[in-house]
Specification:
By secondary structure, the chain is α+β, with helices and mostly antiparallel strands. The chain has one domain: Thrombin, subunit H. It is 17% helix and 45% strand. It has one helix and six strands, in the order ββββββα. Strand 1 and strand 2 form a beta hairpin. The two termini are 19 Å apart.
Length: 109
């Protein structure tokens, strides 16, 4: 699902503040002009609207979409898959995605 949420990506002592452009039950696409290297493990912190507690999840960079200066529609960033999700975290993510889908499907045209 396409979204626009802030996300903090933490790698040891380094923090990257970016935005989530897309989320699924398997991972997220983080829009950033400074993507991390493929294989980088990180901690993700993000809080979808109307949730009492933020997600704090482990992830690994699976792919990178570098900046393409001459591309008609540049979309720089990185695809991050969730790793070691607890059943509770997976259920929360799926619940958020279903809520977004329901709201969008039932929004007035």
């Amino acid at each position: 699902m396409d979204v626009t949420w802030s996300v903090d990506c933490e790698i040891e002592d380094t923090f990257l503040y970016a935005s989530i452009a897309n989320i699924s039950e398997l991972g997220i696409f983080v829009r950033t002009t400074e993507p991390l290297e493929v294989g980088t493990r990180l901690t993700l912190r993000f809080s979808p609207p109307n949730l009492p507690e933020p997600f704090v999840l482990a992830g690994v960079v699976q792919w990178v979409n570098p900046i393409r200066a001459l591309a008609p529609s540049p979309n720089p960033g990185m695809g991050i898959s969730f790793v070691a999700l607890t059943p509770e975290d997976r259920e929360r993510i799926v619940g958020v995605i279903r809520t977004i889908a329901y709201v969008r499907d039932n929004a007035p045209n």
